[in-house]
Amino acid sequence: MTWEIDPVHSNATFSVRHAMVATVRGQFKVISGKLEIDEQHPENSVVEAQAETASIDTHEPNRDAHLRSPDFFDADTYPTITFKSTKVESTGSDTYRVQGVLDMHGVQKDVVFDAEYAGQQKDAYGMTRAGLSATSRINRKDFGLNWNAALEAGGVLVSDNVKIEIDLSAVQKA
Fold first, then answer.
1. What share of the chain in percent tops pLDDT 90?
2. CA distance 76 to 59
3. What is the set of domains in the chain, with CATH numbers?
4. For FRET with 97, which of 18, 62, 65, 83 sits at 20 to 30 Å CA-CA?
């Protein structure tokens, strides 16, 4: 069954340590993609998703501009971040391990998402929706996002580890 990601009811968020002690959260406001869900044989399922790097939003315009710059995402050169699954395996009744290739900043790396399938439901408009959430952790330097600043008291301004959280609502296509 084919499903199209509903960007209005979906989120692609991330969090990273700032100044060694605080957490900064952000999101990509423009996301899209499709899912092929085979509930009987999850190993046949496929996830393809993308986010527009210029749509990054951390609720701080100056930081967002810096994140769009060549110091980080270089949104003019690399306008999208994409993910395409290569393997889906069941880990429980509604939980899955989704392996795939994350293409970000011109670098392709294998990543794993732990996912939970929320099932399907008809919405108030008669459309059938499927929901899922997924999390992963990556090292931003693995994708060439190397910019940082040393702190006077020791440590760095931005941690290397990034937590990614995805919440998707997808609409069944005829």
1. 83
2. 21
3. 2-172 (2.40.128.110)
4. 18
Take residue 79 and report the two structure tokens written for it.
Answer: 């306008």
Q: Which residues contact 30 (CB under 8 A, 6 or more apart)?
A: 7, 51, 52, 54, 55
What does the pLDDT read at residue 21?
Answer: 84
Helix, strand, coil abundance in the chain, percent, nearest 5: 10, 55, 30
8 Å CB contact between 82 and 102: yes
How many degrees, rounded to 5, is the angle at CA 81 between CA 71 and CA 68? 30
User: What integer pLDDT is reported at residue 15 of this predicted model?
Assistant: 96
- Contact between 52 and 12 under an 8 Å Cβ cutoff? The reply is no
The secondary structure element, H or E, covering residue 21 is none
What's the rounded Cα separation, in Å, for the pair 40 and 86? 18
Cβ count near 2 (within 10 Å): 13
Contact between 107 and 138 under an 8 Å Cβ cutoff? The reply is no
45-68 confidence digits (pLDDT tens): 999 999 999 999 999 999 999 999
Cut 0.85: pTM above it:
yes
The first and second tokens of residue 109, run together, are 């790396």
Q: Phi and psi dihedrals of 63, rounded to 5?
A: -65, -40
